[in-house]
Structure formats: C-alpha cells, structure tokens
Amino acid sequence: MNDRNASPDTATNGALILVVDDELDLLSAYAMLLEHLGYRIRTASNGREALACALHERPDIVVSDFMMPIMDGAQLCRELRASPALSSIPFILCSAGRLRNDVPIPYDTFFPKPVLVDRLVNEINRLISRRDAT
C-alpha cells in the first residue's frame, strides 16, 4: 500500500482516490496524473490490499482494474458494497477483458482498457460532484 499526498486543489476538494492495479507502471501513471490534478492518492496492487487500505482510510472513490491476483476488482467491489461503512463509495472498474453478463458487479462506471485519461478524469469529477451534492 502506497501513500501519496498532494496539496488539495479547490476543484478536487482534496478528494482521496484509491487506485488499484497489479500493473505497477499503469498504477504509477494513474497515481501521478491524479496527484498532479490535486487529488490525494492511495494505491494498492490487488483487491485484498485495497480493501485493507479502504478500511484504514475511507477513500472518496475507487478506480480499480478487474483482473488482478489475490482478489480481483469484482470481488473488491462486492466487498466494499457489503460493508455499511464503505458501501456508498463510487467505484470505477477498468478492464482489458470482457465482463461476464451473468455475474453482476455493483460498480458505478466501467471503462475498457486502455482508458482514455480525459474520460476517466471527467467521470471521477462527476462521481465526486454527485457525492458532494448529497
């Protein structure tokens, strides 16, 4: 579990994003980009590590890969939704593979990989704004 802090930008309200991916280069790229935009970032390389991180410090949003060792993104999403303290966290799921339609995953947004950065950032902002409005 890595901890990266940036000074909060007024547009991001210093929101905490948990980024989860087993591809360390991609994980670092997402983290650096989002940190540069003013978000606070935590990273994890698998779902189990991400769940522990979320339980330790509740993120404002989770951006997770689907296919990972130990615990995949679908199971992470289900675990978060099952926790009363974490169930309302917006969840963005990303995957280079296809998702099965017969196994529901309670994510908020799905992006196929490679993810277009502008779309990802716009969706993060939209989900955080929706959270702030409630």
TrEMBL record:
Q: Which SMART domains match?
A: REC (SM00448)
Domain called Response regulatory: residue spans: 16-128
Residues with the 4-aspartylphosphate modification: D65
Keywords annotated in UniProt: Phosphoprotein
Q: Name the Gene Ontology biological process terms.
A: phosphorelay signal transduction system
Q: What SUPFAM superfamilies does the record tag this protein with?
A: CheY-like
Q: Identify this protein by name.
A: Response regulator
What superkingdom does the record give? Bacteria
Keyword Iron attached: no
UniProt-listed InterPro entries: Bact_response_regulator, CheY-like_superfamily, Sig_transdc_resp-reg_receiver
- In the UniProt record, does the keyword Phosphoprotein occur? yes
